[in-house]
Amino acid sequence: MVSWEQVRPHREDVYMTSTVIRRTGAANDPATHAGTVVIIGGGASGVLAACALIRCPDHRIILIEPGTTPGPGVAYGTARPWHLLNSRAAAMSADPGDPQHLLRWSHARGLPLDPADFLPRAHYGAYLADRFTHALGSGRLDHRRATATAVRPYGDGHLVLDDTGTATYADHVVLALGNPPPHRPFGISDAAYDSGAYIGDPWAPGALDAVPRDQPVLLIGAGLTAIDVALTLTLTERERGSERERGRRTPLDLISRRGLLPLAHPDRPPAPIDLDLPASRDLAPLLRAVRAAVTAGADWTAVVDAVRCRADDLWAGLDHAAQDRFLRHCQRLWEIHRHRMAPAIAARVDRLRRDGDLRVRAGRISSVEPRPGGGLTVTINDETPQWYATVVACTGPAPAPVTPGPLLGALLDEGLLRPGPHRLGLDTDPDGRAGPGLWVIGPLSRGHLWETTAIPEIRRQAEQLATAVNASRARSAPTTV
C-alpha cells in the first residue's frame, strides 16, 4: 500500500519503483504476490464477482465499497417493502451450482418461498448481503470501506487509488459499478433541472418523501422504474404502515414516447420451449422466426424466454446496421415483453389506471421550465403547457460513456477503456476483459452483450470472468515492478 502523495499524476507507471511500496502485506505487494484482484463496486455485480473469484484458490480479493454492507446496491438497497423482483425466485440463486440456494435460505428465515414467487427486492438485498458475509469467511476476501477514485497502470498491473489516501496494487481490477446515473431527459432547462421541483434520481435517499399527494405530478418514462415510483406515490398511509388512510388526491401522469408499460408475467411460468432461431447478421430472419412461433400458438412469454437464453449470441451475430435497426425500432417492444411486471404489481397498476389514479399517455416533452411561485411548466407535443408541482425522471440510466463519472471518465480519457458498440457500455471481450488486467461486469458490459442487467446473466458473467482471470493467473508468474 502506498500513500496518495506518493502517486504522482505524471508518468508514475514509469518512474515508480518497488522501493515506493511499503511492505504492508503480500496482498498489496507486487514483488511477492501476483494474485490480487480488486473489485470496485459493492452491488450485486461486485458481490457475485467476489463469490465467483474466491473459488479460485490462488487469488486474494479486495472489494472497495464505501457502504457498510455490500450486496444490495441501489437496485435492492433502496427498495421498499412493496417493491418486488421482476424475476421468479427459481432464477435468482447467487450460486450457479445450487439453483435452490435462495429458496432454502428464505425457508430457513421463515419465508415460505415458492420457486414461482416474486420475492420482495429488499429481502433479496439481504440475501446478497448474507452471501457476501459468507464469502468474507473464506479468509481471502477483504472489504475496504472507501470510494475508488482512480486506476493507474503500474508494472504488470494497476494501482487503485481511493479516497482514504491509499493506493492498492492489483494484478486485476474488476469494474462492477452497476448502472450509470439516470440521464437527463430532453427539454429540461437548466433552471428546471436545478429546481427543487425536479427529481432527477428517484432512488436517491429521501427523494420521493416530499412529493405532494394533492397536487399534479408527472413521471417521465414508462418502464419498471416508473412503475416502482408510481406504486410508492400512490400507496395509502395505511399501506405504508400508518394508521391514517390517505391515498393520492390528484392522479399521477406518466408519459413516454410510446406510452407502453411493461407487460405482466403469467401467474405460473409456462413450459420452456425449444425455439429454432437462425444465426443471422440480419434482423429480419430472427423476427420472422419469433412471429412464426407465436402465430403457431406458442405462449409469447415462453417465446421471449427462449430468445433471452440466446440473446447475447444472437446480438453478437447481428451486424452493426442490424443492431442499430433493433435499437431504433424494436428495443422498446423487446423491453416491455422481456422486463415484465410481477402479477401482483401488474394487478395494482391495472387498478390504479381503472380508478383514474394513474394516467398513461404517449408523447414527447418539448420543454420543462420553472414557474414563478413554484412547480414546473411542461409542454408536451407542443400542446398547451401544463403545470406540475413535481416532475420525476424515471427514464433509467444513460448509456455508460455518456455520464461516466470521474473514475470511468479518466479511464476513457487515458485510453484504458473504450466505449462499446452503439455507446451502450464499455468495449470488452466475451469474458469481460476491457484491457490488460481490466475487467468489466454487469450493466457496463451492455453493447458487446445485450442481456447484462439481470441476476442470471450477471451470475454467468461472474463465472466466465473468474475462469478467465484464473487462466491468466496460470499463464503469468509473479513479477517485480
TrEMBL record:
Domain FAD-dependent urate hydroxylase HpyO/Asp monooxygenase CreE-like FAD/NAD(P)-binding: 38-179
InterPro entries in the cross-refs: FAD/NAD-bd_sf, HpyO/CreE_NAD-binding, L-asp_N-monooxygenase_NS-form
Entries under Pfam families matching the protein: NAD_binding_9
Recorded superkingdom: Bacteria
PANTHER family: BLR0577 PROTEIN (PTHR40254:SF1)
Name of the protein described by the UniProt record: FAD-dependent urate hydroxylase HpyO/Asp monooxygenase CreE-like FAD/NAD(P)-binding domain-containing protein
Annotated source species: Actinoplanes lobatus
Taxonomic classification: Bacteria, Bacillati, Actinomycetota, Actinomycetes, Micromonosporales
